[in-house]
Fold each of these.
Amino acid sequence: MRRPTTSEVRRPATVLALLLVVVLVLPPLLSAYWIDVLTAVAIYSVVALSLNLLIGRVGLVSLGQIAVLALGAWVAAKLAFVSSIPFPLVLLIAGLITLVLGTLVGLPALRLSGLYLALITLMLAGAITVVLSTTNFPNGGPGFLSHTESSFGNPAVRRPDIASSDPAYFRFTVIVAALMFALALWHVRSRPGRAWAAIRQSEPAALAAGVNITLYKLWAWALASFMTGVAGGLLAGSVGKLYTYQFPTRDSIILLAVVLMGGIYSLWGAVVAGALMKLLPALLDDWGLPADLLIILFGVGVLQVLLTAPGGLAAQVPKDFARMGGGLSAVVRRRLAARAERAPTGTAPQEPAP
Amino acid sequence: MPDWQNFEPFIVSGLALGGVYSLSGVGMVVLYRTTGVLNLAFGAVGAMGAFIAWSLINTFGWPAVLAYLACVGFGAAVSLIYGMLAGPPLAGRDPLVKAAATIGLALILLGSMSWIWSDKARSMVLPTTNWRYSVGQVLINWTQIIALALGVLITLTTAVFLRLTGLGTAMRALANDREITAALGVPVRRVEATTWVVSGALSGVAGLLMSNLVGLDAATLTFLVISSLAAALIARLRSLVVTLAAGIVIGLVNALVTPIFSISPYRDMTPFVLAAVALLFLARHQQVSFARRIT
């Protein structure tokens, strides 16, 4: 057996420590408002993760991920109202049902590639949004839709018994999100990840190498739908009462923008994307700046990423820091050398004797 | 089923909307064929132009005609600037990347619009909307007639232009193969710039008409591009005449469903469903191969 390298030990340890800090240390320090915001960040990181995988690993672009999120939320809310199965199971089943729905849509759509696939997902998302704005979300009413028009005393979607308070639900969300990231990482590191990499490089070449491209593309699509469905369930439990306006088509576009800005070649990019999408607006609001600034910023960010920095923030920031660190140490070294020259006694190298 | 009489007014509004969808669709198809850029900011550019026209008329007291020209000019200018700045660095990239970059432009414009003009609701009424007359039971205004007529006229003019003029031939050559066209000595950048200007001007016209027919709202107008895009997609981003027909069919179906109450709430799905079905139908024989795919 070979010994694991330092980075193989250090990275999981860092992630684990970070997770512990977020789960244990953060909640008591923050007000209810910021806990809400961070819960949303965790949920949208999972949505961003699904798109991050599709774009960065397989090379498929979906412009309808927010509509899939809405589907997941609808299914989870429905399950929570009509059954009494435990909440984690609700999440799992919501994810699986979204997986089936997403795959049914994906099966024909995956014949298309590139631009056309992105556009058909945009069209389907538009259609789903129209349907949901008519059926609305379950709020404990009668019938298949479980929706009632009366806005008085409707129950909220229930949360797990162990996590009914906001801080506890935040912890629950972070742990589920971490599981989703682990699932993604496991896929990327194993056989599907290698198949996806081949497909992203060149579909015909992958086909020639014996990769079942239909299977693995569909697999990626199903995995993304599953994750987004689970995120939808988390969202249902988080906000309690769901409305169509929480899932506008513009969010699907903005999601693409933040995922590209966060960086598509690293799973960290998804966390950055979640923060850009949900934490940044709250911060701007806190500082009294208009939220429209953010949309402009996202627009500039997309152009910047596509024109100059394909790795996004997740790749760019460490690189910039390294460059800055390198620059700083060079400056320090030059200063020291200059000082050494000015003071020839002692430290300066002695001229060799003739 | 409701009476035929109930449908009549919706034929007119459907045709008008369809005309603008066609107009936008043609603007997008021509740009896509020539430069390879599917401009998802088409709606946002037109919307911002319409807002500027509104401000010029209502705040600065410009004559209406000048303001409308400013709207069209704004569309052309912004499109040209974007095309010249982002076009060359992205020229060799995948069409998908080029389209995603226009999302950046759309977001910048959308954010600016909601920032600058967020204070109150506005409405844009073209003077032609007040010139109306009735045919049978139905009241028709000139804006609706202009919308449909422009849609048809611009499609046909563009088709003839592409067929008969030197610039049109150059544009068609570019649509076929950029490298070979450049090698043959066609000034590629200049042809592309012209296309951006024309397409941008069309987005200004579409924005002006839409703001009157649908309402002056930044988000609505920006995302109406998806409906126009549906028309372009049904034509496989290729045929202008099919784009025209698809735009009008989308507008008509969307409007004609309105009086049928059982499916009326779902009428906004029309462009999406038609485009999705068309795309899936057209892709049914798609196969993986090393051959360069003709898009």
Amino acid sequence: MPRPVPEINASSMADIAFLLLIFFLMTTTMNVDTGLARMLPPMPDPNVKQDDVEVKKRNIFTVLINKSDKLLVRGEPMDLSMLKDKTKEFVMNPNNDPNLADQNEKEIPMIGMYKVSEGVVSLQNDRGTSYEMYMKVQNELVAAYNELREDLSRSMFGKSYDKLSKDEQEAIGKAIPSRISEAEPKNVGGK
Amino acid sequence: MARFQRKGKGGMPAISTASLPDIVFMLLFFFMVSTTLRETSLMVKSSLPEATEVAKLEKKSLVSYIYVGPPIKSMQTLYGTEPRIQLNDSFKTLDDIRDFISSERDAMSESDRPLLTTSLKVDEETRMGIVTDIKQELRKASALKINYAARRVEKK
């Protein structure tokens, strides 16, 4: 007579299932779309005569990318790794260099008087520039502004920018406005 | 001395498996909620560039997508390898972007319309020419909020 096979205890199945469930809950990253948010400048109205907004030369930080993905920053070739620091230096102008961005003292809520930079970063690219390079440059420029905001946030509020309240973030945004302009496309060179 | 007595047949009572369905349902619901179904099937290759400073795209309902890139392998016999624009489920030309934006606008409620964000999912090997053209079209359609889709990478 064969011995009856003992039934396997299944009460721990639930525990195992829960364990798995929790594990997956913690590790699954929902497929969130991420990207660099930008605002395009509005199309100029053809009926309104466009008087070119005079921006002083010292306040413009031109970044050109040519079709072989080389950078030309303010007339000088530059490596991508230098771009962020140069941008920061341009915007903050710590030594009051007359060639770098002008500053304008303004009253900002929660911060008080602050020298707001007048600098504008103007990004221009060729039609043949690779998108990858374009994004790298965009990323460096955004990183420069983000780091400046982070620095100010630490010195003003003693907290990281991410941890600030909405009002505080807004104040920082006013103190260091991110001015990256994507210039009107120019057709230089062929396709 | 026989303290532990063996009972005749297997000592354990059968355990109820009545809660198993609950567990299975829970798993099912979890995956149902977390899975986002891709509404459009991609016809262009779009491996996104990397960036460190990315921000999350909030509210999916306010976002419309423009895919740009070379057509995928199975489409290349028909459409070649030059980067093309995909809107919804088909290849489109630049002129269609304005219609696309206005139809996306119409589908949204009045109050949400100014918040329309256009996410550009552009393959990293694309040249800027086509992207610039798209940007100009978007400006003409006054869809000014854009988002260059990128993969998040950690800072080095």
Amino acid sequence: MKINSKFKHGSRLIRLSFPLRAMVHKSLIFILVSAAISFMVLDKNGSATIEKTSVVIADIFSPILDFISRPAASINQVLQDLDNLSQLHKDNSVLRAENKRLNDWKMIARDLRAQNKALKTLLGYTGDLPPSQITARVIGDAAGPFVRTLIINVGTDRGIKKGNAVISGEGLIGRVIAAGKNSARILLITDINSRVPVLVESSRDRAILTGTNAGQPKLLFLPASADLTEGDRVVTSGHGGVLPAGLPVGTILNAGDGNVLISTFARLDRLEYVRVVVRDKIISPDLN
Amino acid sequence: MLSNLLNFVENTARHQVPLMTMIVLVLMSVPPLYLPHYGGIAINLSLIGLFYWSVYKPEFLHPVTTFLVGLFYDFLAGTPAGMFALIFLVARVLLGIYSKRLRGTTFLPLWVGFSLVVFGTSFVGWLACSLWYGELLDLVSVLFHSILTVALFPFGAALLIWISRKVYRVS
């Protein structure tokens, strides 16, 4: 009898605990969903805590990411070397012709440099300090179609700061948006959040280069009177004082109606080493 | 007493295997592969782990764990904080409801189930990001991202089955 009543009491407890557990489980899910939405709202408002946490996590795991990325980087290097070997003869001819052309330009450039120096002295011109460049390796490229950012293996300990321009051998690839002690996150120019002040070299028309998260970036806020030709070079304008002026970006792909797309010089899908242009931001004078 | 302690440590370690494997899968998803145009469709391997453990060991993949892994992915990948935490959480809850049905099936229905999860989470991610940025993202990239992730499921699942057999000694 005692045993039966004990079982009766136990099963009553079990019957009671299931609904209670379900309620606790549902409440927990609700709390976690609310927490996730709160994180999103905080991030949207530019919370410094979220940014700092992201930077710290990237810093902690950057040595592991560096290690994991090395096999793929080695294979990529071997494939590139094989590709270069197969094109050796053709590249050799092209390079000889280009060398000859550049030698002619070298003499012109020397004359222009001397003229430039003389004119600067005459006008008392004070130019920008030449920026320094730090080479870094790409160790992270994860977000796929949702965000176009990279993680590199250098940070504030090497002088990297938020806002520094990042270039490859061919041209601009993006800018630093967060910098930790030994890693930094770069926003690529193809990201939908990216806004880079540029100008069309030939016509000097100013515009803003913005990404689309896929394929080629486009130009916004072009003047209505802009006279563009396919193949025109686009460079950074330096407006805003964040990015240096004159960094090559790309060429105009289509100059017709609708979106003006840019073909970037830099191969954004095969970046292994990049250079961070370290330069202090130029602050606009206070007009008061 | 020592054997009790060892048993406790062993049981605790077994409980953490899903979390550890998911963290490893997140870390393996982040480094670049240097393939042409890969960056725009980079896969999220942790979805394979989320699906597998939600179906086969849901008791070891607590919603809090799922939330934290999603948040970890957000911070490493650079997506809006909380976005994949929310997506993973919703996927975990839905998989928890259908896990018994999926457990008793062969590989092909399981793969189909995983495809639905991937396409569903990718679509939700696309929608969330489009709302976040105030502009529609390219859907083709999201489609290729999903297809690639689905294609890698057999390999990821094979690895997780092997781990499961070693750790939990199941057939």
Amino acid sequence: MTGVKKRGISTPYLLLIPGMGFLFIFFLLPLFNLAQTSTQTPVGGGDTGEYEQTWRFANYFDAFVENRDQFGRSFLYALIATVLALAIAYPLAYTIAFKGGRFKNVMLVLVIAPFFTSFLLRTIAWKQILGEEGFVVPTLRSLQIISESTTLTSSAFAVVMGMTYNFLPFMTLPLYASIDRIDPRTLEASGDLYANGLTTFRRVTLPLSMPGVVAGTLLTFIPAAGDYVNAAILGSPQTKMLGNVIESRYFKIVDYPTASALSFTLMISILILVTVYVRKAGTEELV
Amino acid sequence: MSDTASSARGDLGLSHLTKSYGDFTAVNDLSLIIPKGSFFALLGPSGCGKTTTLRMIAGLEEPTQGTISLGTTDITYTKPYQRPINTVFQNYALFPHLTIFENIAFGLRRRGIKDVDDAVNKALDLVELPHLAQRKPTQLSGGQQQRIALARAIVNRPALLLLDEPLGALDLKLRRQMQIELKWIQKEVGITFVHVTHDQEEAMTMADTIAVMNEGEIEQMGSPAELYDNPKTAFVANFLGQSNLIKGSITGLDGANQIVDLFGQKISLQKDRSHAVDNSILAGIRPEKFRISRLETSTSGNILTGGKIEDVSYIGVSTQYQVLMPWGQELMVFEQNDDGVAPFSVGESVNISWEPVFTFALRGDDDAEAGTEVNPDEDLEEE
Amino acid sequence: MNTLSRWFGRNLLRIYAVVAFTYLFIPVAYTFAFSFNDSGKSNLIWKGFTWANWQNPCGAPEVCTALGNSIKIGLLATIFSTILGTMIAFAIGRHKFKGRSTTNLLIFLPMATPEIVLGASLLSLFLVFQINPGFWPTVIAHVLFCMSFVVVTVKARIASLDPRLEQAAMDLYANERETFRRVTLPLVAPGIAAAALLAFSLSFDDFIITNFNSGTMTTFPKFIYTSAARGIPAQANVIGSAMFFLALAIVIVGQLVTRKRKVS
């Protein structure tokens, strides 16, 4: 690729073997195993945790039907969180890229910095801030914005808010990277050609930043759909997401086939959504 | 093998050198010899294969066919780091993570030379930038980077120095200055320079020998004067400076001259300046050789009558005229503004005359437009 | 009034940025504040200001063990994922070979897989081979999900490298190994460093995958999660805040060093 005579063909393969081997053993194999487990059934009369391979594909149907609420909820919450994160992060990324000046790097650091305080600590902090003992709820109550009986925690609102907050850096950074690449002179040219601020944004800035939008939304939606921590800390039994179900099926009610089926379904549905989304958004090279 | 290669010295020989990428042939059966110690230019438009040829000489590309030899040593397949050849890259390619000093010392260190101070400082003196030794490349201007890139190559005293359009990114004045400096440096150190450029003025200023390349082949090779005064093809005639090419046919002989008919008017040209293969020719005259005169003024030499001035451009040093001839062709005339005679104006009827010895003739079937693509970077010819 | 609204319009974005940053930092500030709470076991209500927690950060049981595990795992995962990931990045970024796009896709997949699936599938695998979840399974899990991020980061850096620099090195008598050592590697190094930093942050803060593969071993995030029910000791806040300031300091120092180097 540098124009020099090609080295022996072995070099790239040598470099790849350790890493890809690792990936094969600890990523592909487990997924394969997961697929296998998902079609098992408990051994009748055996101990909990003993399964036999019966290739029961009905497991998927059962799991889906039983948990369709959580399924829908996961994707809904993840979608809302992604949209909110996009709405919050885009102006922020734009400001850093175009109005950052000397402080660009400082501002980027400030975006990532909260990351260094464990996200669990921050999520629990939100729980306490939005809880009865915090200052937000009493204030809102005294201003009569919310009623006496409304609580902010243990609600869908809190869960989505927590997700939005936690994934904000994942949305901001790719957006920033993409927006920063835009040559400010193209925006000037747009203005020179009679486009006002809004039109310039719609027809020049936004399309040029699409790769960042796609990357950011993916990096947010995918983990959000499988998240259960926010739901566990900030939610209630009514806000259980798919992740919570999978977790409990592994650790509380030991039911590996169902858990595996749910995991697989989650992964496949995300993959399908991602493929459709990326195709539609038109960006070829994501990584 | 590497020892023999790295100590090779002598003339550079390219023999039937070919480079193809799939269906596309970048360099087609190129053969030439570059004498040791000369300043050689490979001149041609973008895409003509000159850079590819240079890279094959450097060892950065492998030829599809043919051989490259330095003196008596065949270096066709030798690795670049085994050849006593160094390159000044188009965008300088200075190592951004090393100081200027370390950049220049790089080649010396790789060859195992321990004490580099002396050589590096001498090289810095040669390009007149000793005070920049501890800076980093990003802190230098374009012109300074270019000189450091040169120093980095020269300090290794290679058998051959390759320059890949090194002056392209510099502004006009700086470029002119560097052209003179490069020529002086080449005479000083006596290394063979092979300079690749699309700027014909640059090639003519600096080189002892120019090879004009077009579509992978050499159209003509020779000294700047030879190529300019006596081009063999329309491409060379148009690419090097500008030419007026007029279709005509040889009608007779007069001693050492040929009589040529140009759309009903007769001119003469020297037989040995004709490269035609039959009676149909393109007669070529450089614009600065033309003289414009009013109809009543008497003139000598070859004369073409019936011209009407269509355009006048005052360039300071000269005035450029476009003269429409009766057969519909516009001829270019450059008149130097040296005698204060009132210039001609648009619409005037004029005669064009010139000394016959300045005429050259090309093959009649040659493409009169070859080599005329306008290059926005090229300057107007000055006199 | 007009000038005020005009000023507002011009600086709207900047004001927004300030608001957004405040929003980002509210829980951090809260955590920091409550690290000074004289709380005893449960750090829910403000009881009084004390330095005690900062003076004795390991006072609560298990806090420092958990922290130690997180750091150990983080370092190991960083080292392995950076090495493996960098090698892959060079292979993909520098060579044309059959299966290049498939490899690219394969690297991308772990990033597109929800953590819960990664964690669960690894757990299943370990169970099949009767390996108990614990320290090393966790390290393996972390290496897995960090590797993709390393590849992406280093690949981007490699792509921005001017190939002519390596050609220049070879033109100046450096063979392939020397060129790599003296030109390629130093120029890619910042990308590798950034990737390593990213890997460490991801590993240190990871909860979901760790939860599946750690068994009885605790990491810092896991400690916080499990003690949320009984009450998180203020010492955890101390450590969280300390990590924050430490990381901030490292980044700022790094910035100053690079800026100084550019000027001098």
